[in-house]
Amino acid sequence: MVNVKETVGRLAADYVEDGMVVGLGTGSTAYWFVDEIGKRVQSGQLANIICVPTSRQTAQQAEQLGIPLVTLDEVAAIDVLVDGADETTTDFMGIKGGGGALLHEKIVADNARKIIWIVGEDKVVDTLGKFPLPVEIIQFGSWNLFRKFEAAGLRPSFRKKGPDSLFITDSGNYIIDLHLEEIPAPQQIAHDLIHTVGVVEHGLFLGYADVVLAGKEDGTVVRYEREQ
Ligand code: 5RP
Questions:
Q1: Whether residue 201 has pLDDT greater than 80
Q2: Quick one: 68 and 112 in the same domain?
Q3: 149 and 54 in one domain?
Q4: Known active-site residue 201
């Protein structure tokens, strides 16, 4: 059986050239990209790259593979960032943050010259919103913010780590997932969320990706590429 995540993850490594500064995404698909980068570093094919991880989880994996890591502040820009996504349209509107790393992923994306998303074809949708929209929020006053979201009909739920504990992000924040089902006007909700006090960032990544590699169960990959 084809492992779709592995197929697109390894394929995305072809966008990386030796000497580049590379952004390493987070999640079960990005895992395979990082694994492939590790192999190419070890073989000497990518002996001179430096990488910026988007989460502690990815940093740990990369360290174990001997991939040279730096922080975002140590580089002027990222040449190429490869990351997963939870949903994407073919015009590069997406939701990220299912793995809880949306804030660092967006900051790294904001500093990247080229962004490749690696997904299974089931994540390519016409309208965003079936996947709950993650919103990273400050802990202080979070229940009041939750109630505001509820009153606005946004159907919030706190992201949990276990039955009795809330998920905490790499920056020490909570995540509220909004169960919207459909987001017909993503720009509007993105605007409203980012202007809500207590919200740090939201998982709408609108117009960030340059390329989407969508893997199919038959082992083929559909490539959506933004016109330059
Ligand atoms: C983490 C993310 C991930 O990229 C997204 O959730 C996709 O993950 P996966 O490849 O495991 O489905 O945004 O914050």
A1: yes
A2: yes
A3: no
A4: no
Distance 56 CA to ligand 1 centre (A): 14
Q: Do residues 153 and 91 both lie within one domain?
A: no
Q: State the Cα–Cα distance between residues 177 and 38, nearest whole angstrom.
A: 33
Query: Is residue 203 lining ligand 1, measured as CB closer than 6 Å?
Result: no
105 lines ligand 1 (CB under 6 A): yes
Note the pTM of the prediction, 2 decimals: 0.97
> 118 CB less than 6 Å from ligand 1?
no
Return d(Cα 150, Cα 228) in angstroms, integer: 41
Q: At how many degrees (to 10) do helices 4-12 and 30-43 cross?
A: 50
Can you give the length of the chain in residues?
A: 228
Residue at 164 is within a domain: yes
**Does the beta carbon of 102 sit less than 6 angstroms from any atom of ligand 1?**
yes
* Amino acid, res. 82: V
The answer to whether residue 228 sits within a structural domain is no
The residue nearest atom 4 of ligand 1, judged by CA position, is: 84
Residues of the domain holding 160: 133-201
Res 228 pLDDT > 80: no
| Token output for 220 | 């083929």
In a domain, 156, yes or no: yes
Same domain for 17 and 98, yes or no, is yes
